[in-house]
Every structure is written in C-alpha cells, then in structure tokens.
Amino acid sequence: MAESRPHRLEPYINRLFGYAVCLCGEREQARDLTQEALLKALAARSTPSDEAAYRAWLFKILRNLYIDRVRREGRSLVEAEAEEAPVESVEIWRGDEHLLSALTVKLALTKLRPAHREIIALVDIAGFSYAEAAALLSLPVGTVMSRLSRAREALLSVVVDNNVSTLPRRARGDAS
Q1: Torsion sign over Cα 8, 9, 11, 15
Q2: How many helices (H) and strands (E) does the chain have?
Q3: For the chain, how big is the Rg over CA atoms in Å?
Q4: What confidence tens digit (pLDDT) does each residue in 62-93 have?
C-alpha cells in the first residue's frame, strides 16, 4: 500500500497548493506548506480508505500545519487574518477573455480576509461539499453556508469595485 501512496496523492497536489495559496497569500510559503503536508501524508502509518475522507484528511493536514506555522511565528490566527495578502505579479493580458476573468478573480481573492479566501478555496476551488468543509473546519454546516455566502459577496464586491470601465467619450466639439 505504501508504494501506491504517491500515486494516490497526485490528483490532489494542485488543489492542495491552491488552498495553501489562499491560506498563506504567498506562493513560496504555499509551496513549502504543501510540500510539508504531502510529506506528512506520505509518512502517516494509516490513511482513510474512502476517497472523500482521504481528500478531507489531506486538506486537514495542510490546514493544521498552517495553524501551527502561524502560532510558531508568535501570531494568533486573528492577527494572520488581519494581514493583507500581497498582490502577486499579474500575467500580461493577451486578449484572452478567460485569462482576464481568471486574473480578476485571483487578484480579488488576494484582497479578501483569509477566512473568506479559505472558505471559497475549500468549496468553490477544491470542490468540497458544505458538509465536508464543515467537518474539515469543525463548524456546523449552516455556519459554512453563511460564511461562504458572505465570502462570495465580498469577492463580488471587490471584483465590481475594481472593474475597469470605459471612460465616456467627449463630443468632437468639446474643448475641455
């Protein structure tokens, strides 16, 4: 069974990394955190056999490592949430509407509170159900649903507030 563990982890690596970016707000820290979580999962004596439980177990490992890291740095989770995530470099837009939309959402996510980023990352990005996210976060399902609703509203607000709109054209005779 130990031989198949790396293959079992493989489908989750990108999602774990995406979740780590949402938690940390920085790609390098997220890479380190993801690697640490993968190593911990590989070293585990036993793993859940059910695939949904296995996926939740992986995300729980990553989340707990993040919490431990914040505490080791002498910060509380409240302090970590108060810090703003740095805006990462933006890829050059080449006229691809899909790319522009993806970049808009990625940039907007960096401006959200970490708790909002985390719930969106779990449900909307990683694909966890409300019940799975609730179990992972040790929260009631209703709390997850309301947090997700508030997080989506905050994301929409950031997107709308930062949306580029065209400037009104001046009439030809307008000299001002």
Answers
A1: positive
A2: 9, 0
A3: 19
A4: 999 999 998 888 776 655 554 544 444 444 43
- Domains of the chain (ranges; CATH) run 2-86+93-161 (1.20.140.160)
Measured between alpha carbons, how far is 158 from 110 in angstroms, rounded to an integer? Answer: 10
Question: Which two structure tokens, joined as six digits, stand for 162?
Answer: 């930062």
d(CA 139, CA 152): 18
Give the integer Cα–Cα distance in Å for 61 and 65: 6
Return the residue matching tokens 């992972």: 136
What's the predicted TM-score (pTM) here?
A: 0.59
Asked if 8 and 58 touch (Cβ cutoff 8 Å), the reply is no
Which residue matches tokens 């989506």? 152
Backbone angles phi, psi at 48, to 5 degrees: -60, 140
Amino acid making up residue 128? F
How far, in Å, CA of 48 to CA of 159, rounded? Answer: 39
Length of the chain: 176
User: How many angstroms separate the CA atoms of 123 and 144, rounded?
Assistant: 9
pLDDT digits (tens, 9 = 90+) for 45-65: 999 988 889 999 999 999 999
